[in-house]
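Comment thread on ticket #2218

A.B. wrote:
> Attaching the input chain for the structure job we discussed in standup.
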Amino acid sequence: MNVYKKELKAFDVYCQADGTFLEPVEWPKCVASVNCNEPPARPYTGTWEWNGNSSFGTKISYTCGPYAKFCDDDGVCLDEIIIECAWNKSWVPAALPNCAAKACQDIPFPPEKLGLIYKPDEKNNMTLKSEYTRYNPFIPMKIPFPGPNQCIKGQKLMLVGKILDNNQPVNVILEATQNQEAFHLMIDIATEQISRWMELEKDVVVNLETSVGTTIDFLEPVIIILRCDEDGFSLKLNFDPAYPHDLHQVPLERIKNLLVTGGIELSFAGFVGEEMDPAPPLGFNLTYECPDGMVFDMDWFATPFVLMTCQDSGIFDEPNDWDIYQCVLPTTTECFDCTSKF
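C.D. wrote:
> Ran it. Output below, let me know if you need it in another format.
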């Protein structure tokens, strides 16, 4: 029986004092490696770190994303689970526990053409759009900078979304007067490069750092947080370590706007307080309704509203077909002489 471990890639024999090699009773045998089948799918709201290989010994790290954890039937919860390809061609463990969410990251919005508007209530109230915040904004997006107090009162810039696989690097820019850039972040997942710089004037650029390697991947949740104080900016991406403090090169009074461009889909963007969490908790209700005097085209007598709830899965129960909820003005046809003559 061969007792050598499958992980063994080399075998050494040693020369003894008597001039002979110490040979094993049984030599190890070279055998072909094995490959596992497809691993468990990445959780819808989660992430995985996988090099795409399925050979023996390959490991994959999974998370449920920033707003959920893996929880088993006994209530034991973990932030991360690592599976490994075993010699029997199976992944161990073979299945992932369910993701227990605490909030819903993605806010569903009806298509604008339907005419539905958001209707908050006392128990389920959130501001979907303000001067300094946006939910589900279109890209490119621009938001005014709140002013120097943003860097004095312990506020933060927060972007929540997903990086798209469309060969467009993501750019997050704090634009200033005189064509300056107080801070420029570029995320290029294709090359795994995260670059930061400041542009003081045309052709005068202060390069802060270009780092290679990130846990961010295409179509996975990403949270970008940029904090600032009187001295400089501090950047953090997802679970990666915070980047070094970058000293201000442009006076805060000159910063005008936040500009976001490139291949990113945002569920939230804005300048918010330190404790702000844009994801609604489980059980939160979102209600959209037709404006006063309008009805659903499909059914004039139905109450014209759509109610969605943040489910235990961390996803709102969004309608499969929004188009049936078209808001219209009811019209009637008057009949002045409806008698028929035979």
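A.B. wrote:
> Thanks. Noting for the ticket: The chain has a mean pLDDT of 88.
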